[in-house]
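Predicting structure from sequence has reshaped protein science. With that in mind, we have picked out one protein's residues alongside their backbone shape tokens:
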Amino acid sequence: MYITMIASECAPVSKVGGLADVVYGLSRELEIRGNEIEIILPKYDCMRFDHVWDLNIFHKDLWVPWGNDAIHCTVWCGSVHGRKCYFIESHSDDNFFNRDQYYGYPDDVMRFSFFSKAALEFLLQANKHPDIIHCHDWQTGLIPVLLYENYTFQGMTHPRICYTIHNFRYQGVTGIDILSATQLGKPEYYNHPDRLQDNAHPNALNLMKAGIVYSNFITTVSPRHAFEARHTDQGYGLSDTLYAHQGKFGGVLNGLDYKLWNPEVDDLIPYNYTISNLEQKYENKNALRDKLLLRQEFKPIIAYVGRLDVQKGVHLIRHGLFYALEHGAQFVLLGSSPEASINNDFWNLKQELNDNQDCHIEIGFNEELAHLIYAGSDMIIMPSMYEPCGLTQLIALKYGTVPIVRTVGGLVDTIFDRDYSDKPLTARNGYVFHEADYAGIESAMQRAIGLWHSYPDQFRKLVMQGMQYNYSWHRSGQYYLDIYEMIQSK
């Protein structure tokens, strides 16, 4: 099968979050299974060019109809760790992708709407006819609209579209001027409740809703989150639209790239280990303490790795830190926040706890340190308000670090409480709590810390059960192939 991924990110060349990991990891899995995969991305000036091999001009004169004129583009081709990628460079006066960062500009909707049109125009002019176009998040929500309302009549009758939503919170809500820019026109047609009209603002369009309405199949990144998006406020206003299109909507759990995240072969940790030589994990624990100047003492290390924001339950992360220190554990935090007030709060907390040899707070992100924290910690907390899938808990399991999570999204689909799950005892792999309050996280942390101190053999057994789980892309890749084949047959 010939599959084209169109996205705003792909790891590691242009990565902001989990979207980038999914685009790369799923593409790799599909290619291993014998499919032809190509990825189309913007050519950002800030992307990691050191991860692109053999970058050269593929299409020198791509003219993309835009507004009352056309914009000249160059399409580059290169290999990103074995994946064939095309990069669209715009020569517009708007300077769409030379911005020093990927997102965060007032014209983001216009930038990525242009990218969506340019990607389809490139496929058309290069005479490429993929079986499947797989696009992602609001940034590419216009692609199915443009395909079925425009490019189908120019000869692109073959592709079917799978659309994956990674985060419902960001939807690309915009004014109707996007219709004239993309040359779709017909505002009275598109600004309709059954098409692109935003469910909360009748004078605005919603690009994520566009993707839902026009795609052949929509996925989100875990079965539980698919339920939440339809039946709770986690659909962020799109629940009714998802319900109307429920026959073509489902959840597919993200996979984890075990070439990158695997303590057996990880070259970013000092001691590699498996279930059979778990003692080496504790050598990493000693190395982590040495690196962060923590005291060498008989205590568990509890960690948090990730963004510090409301979605991640920042108030519970802060509370969990102090609870750990007060109940016989050490705590390590690695993360930063896009919000200055939260960042400042944790900088102040870092200064307050600077002399505490049972705690280390690292504001920012450091890939090498992240690997060492996963390898050296005993437990990790994820008290998320919502979590479409989550990769942190999957990484933690592989590294023998027991997850303590809240019952939302992909965390429900992957972590099964040691004491209360209906799974067999041998299939349980962590601790779970329900309410997003202090009592909730304390209940789970108390049980985890208590087991570590009082029943070390049982804790080790729980660690080993978690390490036996396989959340690679193998199973999820097959689910996507099944979806592709289904929508091709219709």
Remarks:
- Residues 37 and 457 are 46 Å apart (CA to CA).
